[in-house]
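Human: If only I could read backbone structure tokens as easily as an amino acid sequence. Take your time, and here it is.
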Amino acid sequence: MVIRIMVMVPLYAISSLISLFSLEAAFFIDAVRDIYEAFVIYCFFDLLLQYLGGERSLMISLHGRSPKYPVFPGNLFWPEVDVSDPYTFLFLKRGIIRKS
């Protein structure tokens, strides 16, 4: 997972170098870079889950905790976040995938 995250740096450098020389090629290279960036964000999330012992272990350790309130402006749309709820956790996981 760490290697996948670290490959992002040379990919950005190569795409920047290509965009200096050709705007047409930069259009396609930027699309590939954006797709890989989404993949890296999900890999980082998965790496954090592995460090915390996996999804099941995280759910067990979070069970019984009080919900947290998001910071402004998130609290205008979502009043509280209960990560110990499996449906909320799934919603957050899907949000990471969609954002990417």
Remarks:
- Residues 1-51 form one domain.
- Residues 9 and 15 are 10 Å apart (CA to CA).
- The chain has two domains: 1-51, 53-100.
- DSSP finds six helices and no strands in the chain.
